[in-house]
């Protein structure tokens, strides 16, 4: 399944993602006026980010395709267009596309005065397919 | 021009908007964890909100149709799908749909610990059409 992105395709991520993901930093807030960044991310099928935390929390507004999200110690949850996920501060988690579908979502990082993402460890193929139900799954 | 909304159509606004607008409060942050609210708003053609300010600023991610935005003392700017508008804290402004087009956008209100919107005055039909180029304009 492919996605109809809203914003121009962003730059490819070169670290902390298992394969191809593109990030368009819509609101960089370099002057720290809003204490908030917003970005649109396109994950190619099968791509997920490494486990990480946000000191300020994170908000996901899902705009296309299918994806998954998993907090440490919990089952993974499926995300699709129209879903909203709230990630509490300092909760270890990962998110990404489904094995057979692209995934786009707008991400919001509030409370950036508390710090940026802390990256922890990659999600292995075994962990990812166990969480998402297998290689062919959308 | 009609829009393809991402999230379910929200509740109709009963004040501070000239005509029909629907707001889906995606992230209410009632527990004040994120100091940030996010919402999708559908403005019907010709609808605009009253002039107002946000102590924490506001971010607009435009997702469909055509709209306008005007800061006090400046010319109105046209907005369409894929545009991003950053509204500085305490700047008096209004936004809404174009005269002949619906408009949808995701709004983010960061720094909510600084307060909610302060509503000032409606935008008259004369002011609106002068800003947007007339009744038939998209």
Question: How many individual β-strands of chain A?
Answer: 10
Contiguous helical run count of chain A? 1
Distance between the termini of chain A: 8 Å
What is the percent of helical residues of chain A? under 10%
How much of the polypeptide of chain A forms β-strand, as a percent range?
A: 35-45%
Multimerization state: homodimer
Describe the largest sheet of chain A: 8 strands, antiparallel
Q: Shape of chain A from CA axes?
A: globular
Question: Which structural class is indicated by helix and strand composition of chain A?
Answer: mainly beta
Query: Largest interface, by Cβ-Cβ below 8 angstroms: which chains and how many residues each?
Result: A-B, 25 and 25 residues
Mean pLDDT rating of chain A: 94
- The low-confidence parts of chain A are none
Secondary-structure element series of chain A: EEEEEEEEEEH
Radius of gyration of chain A: 14 Å
